[in-house]
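Could you help me review a protein record that somebody else here produced? Here is the record exactly as it was handed to me:
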Amino acid sequence: MESSSRQASTRFDAVKWVVVVAVIAVGVAGNYYFGNESLLYRTLAMVALALVAGFIALQTDKGRRLAQLMKEAKVEIRKVVWPTRQELLQTTAIVLAFVLLVALLLWGMDSLVAWVVASLIG
């Protein structure tokens, strides 16, 4: 019984995705058709259609899984230990110094190779 219920849900999800694509297509076509109208009105209409399409998409199985993933990501972000300002500045300074050192080394090696090639050629 669960298999037939799952198949029906999957078919209904496919219909929902078709509706989402249709709403997006209507938005794009409407934005093109009403190109002479105020940008504010067109933007508000596009935002409204995007919200409708997003709401419909969240009603599908994949949409619910995406929403759950976002909730879990938000919880994980709260667990992150962010560096202090001093740690951030020190790390940034180290990275910049290392990048400058490597750039100077590459410039020096390039100049040396160019000098050797110029000496060999003429």
In short: The helical segments are 2-33, 39-58, 61-79, 85-121. The radius of gyration is 28 Å. The chain has two domains: 1-80, 82-122.
